[in-house]
Amino acid sequence: MKLLMFSIKRVLIAIPNLLLTSMVVFFLYMMMPRVMGTDYDLAIIWMEYKKWIMSYISGDLGISSYYRVPVTLILKEKMKNTLILGVASLLITYVLSFFMGRYAGRHPNTLGDRLISGINYTGLSFPMIVVAVYSIYFFSFELNWFPSNGSVDITVPEGTLEYWLDKLHHLILPATVLGIVATATYTQFLRDDIIDNSTKDFVRTARAIGVSEKRIYNVHILKNSLIPIVTFLGFDMVNLVNGAIIVETIFTYPGIGQLFIKAIDMRDHAMVMNLTMIFSTIMIVGNMIADILYGVVDPRIKLE
């Protein structure tokens, strides 16, 4: 019951944030050059806002002025590509950070720990755009291991095994770039938390009663150290939105990030407004999920 009430409170906090965001997005849209030539009074603007927000909730996002088709038709394919990219990058992030953080935490101040820390700090010092550009140069142009753009070769028949293998081939490099940036942060968090938990009273008690070191690390320490990593899942949704815009643009990967930049370029107002609202919704929901997860998995937080 406490968990349910805690979650309901967080949802109720998110709703006014979404409404306020929708108002900002709509009024910015109304100030764009395309509509400034028409005189609107406050009552008409308010009516237009209510009409738009109800259409947005129902899934009617209007017509793209550039593509001349409903916005939802374009978003379906682009959103699918972004979701595939996002899931792949999260998988890379969590797998790499788990194994590197676990090793570094269990073997602090060793050569392996210093090597992992060096790699992490190097990764943190480079912006994503720099990592993406150099990855394309090295792995695509120099080594010719991965394609530098697109999500699949247009000559490959859709639905075949070759099609999905080619899609995976195009996915590896942008997903790795998007995932590896967060890996450095998560690895250091996990490492530091494992080291911190290894000095706690419950660990000393476990050792005193004869629990094996393997069980202490794998069950007691690791379980508690994974708490901050789990709570990052909500924030990952936010980071994926920001990262997707950069990575998809550089790799010309056909997702909603690249679509957003192109819509701005082409002054596709309906597309820009709805994508801005979608990004804002993802960010608010992501923060809400992170808040709920933190309250659920961390016993030190009261579900109030």
TrEMBL record:
One Pfam family from the record: BPD_transp_1
Entry's transmembrane regions: 12-32, 81-99, 119-139, 171-189, 226-251, 272-297
Coiled coil (UniProt feature): none
Localisation per UniProt entry: Cell membrane
Keyword Cell membrane: yes
Gene3D superfamilies: MetI-like (1.10.3720.10)
Domain ABC transmembrane type-1, first and last residues per copy: 79-294
UniProt topology in membrane: Multi-pass membrane protein
Keyword annotations of the record: Cell membrane, Membrane, Transmembrane, Transmembrane helix, Transport
Keyword Flavoprotein in record: no
PROSITE patterns named among the record's database cross-references: ABC_TM1 (PS50928)
Family per record: Belongs to the binding-protein-dependent transport system permease family.
Name of the protein described by the UniProt record: ABC transporter permease
Organism: Mesobacillus jeotgali
